[in-house]
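User: Could you walk me through two proteins back to back? I'd like the raw sequence and the structure tokens for each, with a short line separating them so I can tell where one ends and the next begins.

Assistant: Of course. Protein one, sequence then structure:
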Amino acid sequence: MKKFISSQRHLDPDIVEEKKNNRDFNVNYITFEYEGEIINVIVDGHHSLAAAKEMGEKPVFMESEPAKKEYANYINGTEKDKTDLMNILYVDSDWYDIATGGCVW
């Protein structure tokens, strides 16, 4: 099973409710190697993930091709490039495992 990480904890309840009403449970991520570990970083769909959890549904995880293309130079670059990417993707909290809520680093 893949481990997904995020740095976004803030959720707008109105958006989560909208996602629930629309049954939008799609969560987009990108995968790359960082510090010797394969990681799956959520790049979009945090509100959809919350909606799925609240409704007892399974989120639909999809690798984001647009994000992979947008960040390709970072993903395929040096470790510094990947650290820069992690900083770009950072939102509002420590990086955490979305399954456990525990900090990753």
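----
Protein two, same layout:
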Amino acid sequence: MSTEPNKVIYSMVGISKYYEKKAVLKDIYLSYFYGAKIGVIGLNGSGKSSLLRILAGVDKEFNGEAVLSQGYTVGSARAAGPGAGEAGSSGCLGS
């Protein structure tokens, strides 16, 4: 495990997610550095929750590759409070 600020600890490589034949996520490439703070914003139905479920390891039915560096874990929790909505979720990378 490293606390180096330039160490990539999580990557999504070519992630695509389809519901029936509709693409919700298409060919996504992301990398998160150790200590990074991220947010996901977008319109309803744009794939925010799908992206976070893949990141958290809850959804394993997607095309592409999600890679978590050895020694790190991903946790998730349902969002709560005003404006959270039914499908709200959040993820957390940790060591």
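The mean pLDDT is 82.

Let me know if you want the two compared in more detail.
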